[in-house]
Amino acid sequence: MVGGAVRDALLGLSVQDRDWVVVGSTPEELVARGFLPVGKDFPVFLHPTTKEEYALARTERKITRGYHGFAVHAAPDVTLEQDLARRDLTINSIAACALIDWSTEQFGTEVDLNPANLIDPYGGQRDITGKVLRHVTDAFREDPVRILRVARFAARFTDFNVAPETMQLMQDMVTDGEADALVAERVWQELSRGLMEAKPSRMFEVLRECGALQKLLPEVDRLWGVPQRADYHPEIDTGVHLMMVLDMAAQLQAPLPVRFACLMHDLGKGTTPADILPKHIGHELRSAKLSKAVCERLRVPVECRELADVVAMEHGNIHRSAEFGAAALIRLLERCDAFRKPQRFADVLLACECDARGRLGLHDSAYPQRQRLAEVLKAAQSVVTSVIAEAALAEGLDGKQIGERVHAARVAAVADYIK
Questions:
Q1: pTM, 2 dp
Q2: What is the CATH number of the domain that holds 17?
C-alpha cells in the first residue's frame, strides 16, 4: 500500500482510498489473474473484486514540457525504492507491505503500520513528525502539477509548512516556465480540490509565494496591495480580505460553487483606477467580466461560473438590501433568477455572508440579509402565478402584460411582508 493511504493512516486520519504498487510483475500476469487494465499512460489495474487500483512499479523520464511529457518504464526489475522516488512529497512516498495469498486472492483489510513493516527510504515519517511538505528528489521539477499539489496539501494539512528547499525549487520551476505548460483541466482539478480543503487561503499563499499565482490567476494575484475603505474593510488590503472570505466559506462548509464565487467576487478591484482608490466604483461589473474570462480560460463547470457571475454582479446590492423597498427587492430577485433557481439563490446568499464576515473583526458578526432575503423570496413565491396568468389570458392580455401583472403581485406580496 502506498501514497495517501499510508500517510493518512500514520496521521490518524480515516483512509478513503487505498492504492497499491506491485513489484516484480507484468501486465500479462495481472490480466491473467483477473485484473482489469484501466491506465492510459502507464500500467494501472483494478482488482476484480475490491476494485482498488494496482499499479506496476515504474520509473518516469522527462522528455518534454507539461504534465504528459514523460516516458514511462514499467518492468519486473523496477524496485519499490525507484517507484517511490518518482513521487511528489516525502509524506506520500511511504509504502506498507501487505501479505496476500495469491492462490485464494485473499487481501487483508488492514495493513500493518508497525515501523518495521514500512518502507520509507526518503524520510516521510520524519516529515510527518516535523510537519513538513518536502519534495522527494529533484525529479519533482519535471511535473509542474506538483506545484499545485503542494499548495493543495498546504490547504489540507494546515499545520504543515513547505520546506524552504522545496519552495525554492517551485520558484525555480516558475522562473523556468514550467508553470506555463499547465493545461486548463489540471489547473481546475487541483484548484477546485484546494478550494474544498480546510483552509483554502493557504493554497493561494503558497502559489503566490512561489510565483505561480501570477502565472495561473493574475486576476487574483493583483489584488494584494490594493486598498479598500477601512470603514467597510478594516483589513484594508483586498488580497487579505479575499483569503479571509475563502476561509469563512470553508468554516461554513460551503459547496464548491460558493467557494469559487467567493474567489471571483472582487476581481474588479484589481483594475480600479488609482486616482479613485480606496473607493471601487463599478467594481461589480468589472469583477463579472474578469470572472467570465477566468472561467473560459480554465474551462470551469457551468454551475460554478453561473453562480460566480451572479455573486460578482449583485453582492453589493445584497449587502445593501435592507435599504430596498418592495419593488427594488423584486428586481433584485429577478436579476438573480431566484424564482427559477431558488437553490442557487440560497448559494448566492451564502457567498455574500462569507464576503461580509470575511473581514477583520467581523468574523462572528451576524448577517441578517441572508435570512431576510430568503424570507422575501418566500413571500414573493406565495403569489400563485398560474391564477394570474389564467385571468390575464381571459382578458386577452399578451405575455408581456401577464409578466407585468405577476411582477406587480409579487411586489405587493413583499410589501405586505415588509409591513
A1: 0.89
A2: 3.30.460.10
